[in-house]
Amino acid sequence: MTYVDGFVLAVPDANKEAYRKLATDASVVFKRHGAIGFVENWGVDVPPGKVNCLNSAVMRKPDETVMFSWIVWPDRAARDAGNTAVMVDPDLGGPGMEMPFDGMRMIYGGFEHLLGDALAAPGIVDGTVMPVPVASKAAYTAQAAKMADLFCEHGALSVVDAWSDDVPEGKVNSFHTAVLRKPDEAIVFSWINWKDAAAQEKGWAAIMADPRMEAFSPKTVGADMGRMIFGSFTPLVVA
What's the structural domain count of the chain? Predict the structure, then answer.
């Protein structure tokens, strides 16, 4: 099973093209060192939440946009070796490189791929991060598979779920603080891929009217949907 490094960060709107160039250059370096997929997505509809949200997760400023991104590796060992090699690759820029975003507010971590085609080309992406009880991993995976089938039945191209495996505590913020994780919880990083905005809108309307949605919901296995954070994104860099 493949392995996913997930990222959420905020990029100043004025730096969009500078970030695109940085990410494009970085994708070459990561793939040189073993990554098999590299996707950066730019926020188009990232709503505020009552408790938490992707905006609060990265402390987004009014002139910034939230990114939801991932790197796919063959497995955890390839990811560990690849990241080590990337950090010393001179083509990445080296220490002291000026970044077009605040790296201190970027949240990231490694996730075990549970299900779905992580290498499917993205169209419109619905990205989600949520807390799930550690003890419910098997039950969550079973429910997620049913939910993925439901979404694909209603037009989604793919649905990917990944379970937290190597998610560090951050000095400023992290995936842990993003979903207000409790000690007995894991973090799920997932995305739904649609062909375009029209398919996304039609699909969601059908899904919300489908009675199976309630039966397949992650809340049936203990996930706190009140702390789930989400948004819609369009691809900025795909490699």
Answer: 1
